[in-house]
Amino acid sequence: MAGRRLLLPLVLAAAFLAAAAARAGSKPSAAVFELIHRERATWAEMARNDRARMAFICSRGRRRAAETGVTRATATEKHKAAPAAEAFAMPLSSGAYTGTGQYFVRFRVGTPAQPFLLVADTGSDLTWVKCRGPAPDAGYGYGAPLPAPSSSSPPPHGRVFRPEKSRTWAPIPCSSDTCIASLPFSLAACPTPGSPCAYDYRYKDGSAARGTVGTDSATIELSGPGAEAAATSTSRKQRRAKLRGVVLGCTTSYNGDSFLASDGVLSLGYSNFSFASRAADRFGGRFSYCLVDHLAPRNATSYLTFGPNPALSSPAPKARTACAGSPPAAPGPRQTPLLLDHRMRPFYAVTVNGISVDGELLKIPRRVWDIEKGGGAILDSGTSLTVLVRPAYRAVVAALSKKLAGLPRVTMDPFDYCYNWTSPSTGEDLTVSVPELFVHFAGSARLQPPAKSYVIDAAPGVKCIGLQEGEWPGVSVIGNILQQEHLWEFDIKNQRLRFQRSRCT
């Protein structure tokens, strides 16, 4: 969300992939974004920002539970089948110089199109850009002034949205039903009926974004259907088109480190007004991403795709007898219901049935995974380290640490369990069998993350159990490190989450 610290330990770097035909027939098209892993913050910084985000998630859940059913009533209308569309792709660039390890997407909005570099965030429901325009301070009932560091002037690189120069910019009046009843991030104040709808995103650490909201058109590059060919070809012709009616925030003042190096936020969360939902409506009702190893080389790439992903939508290969010495075939896609619960919006929730270590199902109270009883679980690309609420965290950490009891313990912030993984005789890393961790979802879907995703390399010769403890009652968060080296597809239209192991290349 705008107004809070955003965190992804991977960064999109400058590249452009055109989407084009990959298969014969009339399959739905897809849009592909190239993602490149770059620098990351320290583990302590990641944990600190994850805790801030967790506080936001919990407060967000309480707020959503108290809301009326306005957005729920319209949710069933927004994903009606749309005609098959061509693919579109957007250029991406690296934000490694920020030291926060975010994903950035190059986004063109307005008529004529104005280019911006935005943070891509699955926990956001408002797309906003830094904006040059009259600050909506008078009459809106804003709270205290934004604390330092803050800015109400254009950033040094000069990328700032100028709504008066866009022929398709349309401010949303604060007296409109859209502002009053539909936009969850709008302010209630309305100085005059014609005044623009305003927002003030704040977080406990002081980060915030203020501005007014309207609609505009995003410029996209169209090409033939199919994502596979898009990942291998850059020479095909594209033609530009408009994705109209994109809800856009015009931010005139902001503060927070996350916003200093970017031009704003691209919303990938579940909402009637997010960019993800708007684009998915036109491109197959789904989007997917695959995150490379968080310690991969800088040139390692992965993809964000709008539309059916060929890797998941292709028929599964026929079973065959394995030859002696041949590696086992990679398991096919798994799927589980995607819970689009209004209390969890804009986050994507899933039903967890349990967690096992080395085949033993751990004794975790079922209420921990039950939204109705104050629990639940979400997947969040903006949280780095997986956060388990206290009963689940203690059970999982106890099981893992028991298996690693023979290793010497060391202390390292922010983790509770760290181990010296270096042989005293050779100075090389020890060969130690890491216990297998499984997350069991509804529908018999099972996630088996690579060992390096939960017993992580924290420092040279040191590995730690890479989980964080969350408050109970509360929501558990499957962070992006536990998601790495898996392809995840969020099928909003059919309310399904599909995933499978992948090298993300």
What is the share of helical residues?
10-25%
Q: Look up the CATH topology of the largest domain.
A: Cathepsin D, subunit A, domain 1
What structural class do helix, strand and pairing data support? Answer: alpha+beta
| Helix segment tally | 7
| Dominant shape | elongated
- The fraction of residues in strands falls at 25-35%
Structural domains: how many: 2
Low-pLDDT runs of 5+ residues are 1-28, 35-39, 65-83, 91-97, 223-237, 316-329
CATH class of the largest domain: Mainly Beta
Structure description:
The protein is of the alpha+beta class and 505 residues long. It folds into 2 domains: 31-41 and 80-306, Cathepsin D, subunit A, domain 1 (Beta Barrel); 331-501, Cathepsin D, subunit A, domain 1, CATH 2.40.70.10. 13% of the residues lie in helices and 30% in strands. It has helices at 43-66, 70-75, 177-182, 275-282, 310-313, 390-403, 480-483; strands at residues 31-36, 87-89, 104-109, 114-121, 127-130, 150-151, 170-171, 197-202, 208-223, 239-255, 264-267, 286-290, 301-306, 334-339, 348-350, 352-357, 360-361, 377-379, 386-389, 409-410, 418-420, 437-441, 446-447, 455-459, 462-465, 467-470, 476-478, 486-491, 496-501. Strands 2, 3, 4, 5, 6, 7, 8, 9, 10 and 11 form a 10-stranded mixed β-sheet that branches. A 9-stranded mixed β-sheet has the order 1-13-12-28-29-14-15-18-27. A 4-stranded antiparallel β-sheet has the order 17-16-22-23, covered by helices on one side. It is elongated, with a radius of gyration of 23 Å. It starts with 30 loop residues before the first strand and ends with a strand.
